[in-house]
Design brief:
The chain has 10 helices and no strands. It is mainly α. Helix 1 packs across helix 10 and helix 4 packs parallel to helix 8.
């Protein structure tokens, strides 16, 4: 029984380490296009874990994937990561799917809103025209901001709202216990 517990703690530490390494390698592979450090992304993941039901290693996995979309950087990246959690929570889908959907939309706003439309996320004609105009005048960050604004208006706060339920509290407790297990596992390695 003790051996099984030790193995589980080491496994938890290993999963966290893998998630962190994915982020670091994605940053290196993309030549730090996101203009963020691994430490900053780790802090964002930890912060989001404390507010939602998503564990930090799951958020880091999403971040590593989001980093492959090289036109998403800085505050836009951080806002996108939060939005991805809200979209996943609202649509009942995994983080990978939401990360790809939001990442594609922000990386190529004109095509991306079409892809979002196909999964039920709607933009007004005016918004679509504004996004197109921003992209055509090389104001991609403004187009990304408009997309994130609309996603916020449709899904904003969903991940936090679900954390504020009985099952959400249980998920958060499990995440905290997982963090404790990771720490024990790191010390056992």
């Amino acid at each position: 029984l003790v051996n099984r517990g030790i193995v589980n703690f080491v496994r938890l530490a290993g999963q966290q380490e893998e998630a962190e390494r994915r982020v670091t390698q994605a940053l290196i592979s993309t030549n730090f296009a996101a203009k963020l450090t691994a430490t900053q992304i780790k802090e964002v993941a930890s912060s989001l874990q404390s507010l939602t039901t998503f564990g930090d290693e799951a958020v880091l996995g999403s971040s590593a994937l989001l980093l492959t979309f090289k036109d998403i950087a800085g505050d836009t990246f951080i806002e996108a990561q939060k939005t991805i959690l809200d979209v996943s929570a609202a649509m009942g889908q995994d983080l990978k799917t939401s990360t790809i959907q939001v990442g594609k939309a922000l990386n190529d706003p004109i095509k991306g809103i079409g892809a979002l439309r196909r999964v039920g996320i709607q933009f007004s004609k005016t918004q679509e025209e504004q996004i197109k105009s921003f992209v055509e005048t090389n104001q991609v960050a403004k187009a990304q901001g408009l997309i994130l604004e609309e996603l916020e208006s449709q899904f904003g706060g969903m991940a936090e709202a679900l954390a504020d339920t009985a099952s959400g509290a249980l998920d958060q407790m499990n995440n905290s216990l997982g963090d404790l297990g990771e720490e024990i596992g790191r010390n056992l390695q």
